[in-house]
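Onboarding guide, step 5: your first structure request.
Type a short instruction followed by the sequence, for example:

Predict the 3D structure of this protein.
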Amino acid sequence: PEELSQGGPGALPIAEVERYRVHVAFAERLAQAARERPIVLVIEDLHWADEATNELVPYLARKLKDARVLLLVTYRSDELHRLHPLNHVLAELTRSRLAEDVRLKRLTLEEVGEVIKGSLGLAAPPTPEFRQALFDRTEGNPFFVEEILRALVEKGELEYRDGAWHRTKAVAELTIPASVRDAVQQRLLGLEPRARKAMQV
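The system replies with structure tokens like these:
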């Protein structure tokens, strides 16, 4: 909406009054849309949010608590040091009873097998050795599992032939990255130098 183009989350610093006006407009627009059909608003990685977003989230939770709006925010609890600004937001939401905290647990060994099967579109479950190797390296983090699978595909250690994915080496010989950082860095190596520099910045 036009009234949101002047400020709000991600914008350059603006006067506090102007920011409040933008928050009001945002809440009104969502409430209006929710009268037509239910709305789900997802804000990911709130631990990286700017000041305007940290103000907006509890404001929306208060203003839209009776509307057909589900406000879903994600954040990494291990990113929150003692003075992290998100702690105040979470405390306000808890104090006002405006939020339900859902903590995600790491995947089990069996669930890692399901992620492998789903990501690669396998007809049968992966071998116990392959599943265990990825579980040991990722400790059940689904993002890490997917990144490592991508790294193995890009290095040619998993290849697609005859309508299915196959390992090109025995599990013990696979070069499984030691961390997700290694997996991502390996993927960056395939970029041309200027793109890689932009990603590093």
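Each response can be followed by summary notes, for example: DSSP finds eight helices and four strands in the chain.
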